[in-house]
Amino acid sequence: MSSAKTVLLVDDDADFVEMNRMLLEQNGYSVRVAYSGRQCLAEVSESRPDIIILDMVMESREDGFEVSRELRNSEHTKSIPLVMITSVNDSIPFRLEPDRTWLPVDALLEKPVDPQLLLTVVNKALQPDAQLRQERKARPG
Q: Domains in the chain, ordered, with CATH?
């Protein structure tokens, strides 16, 4: 049985998925993929990943927002580290930032994502002390 941490990589851009799947696997991660928000939720219900990397805009402009909120509102998934990737900040007149209600993610990365930055964020999010912080953050109050 492998002790590799499992990353669920969710994006509708197959080239982006393949490039980052290879990067993550070369760095010791087990990678599962989904190409839509619906596929992401189905994958998570079958097997809980250690971290989710989620595109913001897929089937609709709100897809990533909706999926992130659904993941955070579920007892089964609320403590899974969630990294959102997007190119939306280039096309809107304000900057999106993670917050507890509208964009409940642990990190927001801009596309094109620098491979080293992605690895750094994933590694940091999977540290044991980061998990404890996430569990505390997910609790009400």
A: 6-138 (3.40.50.2300)
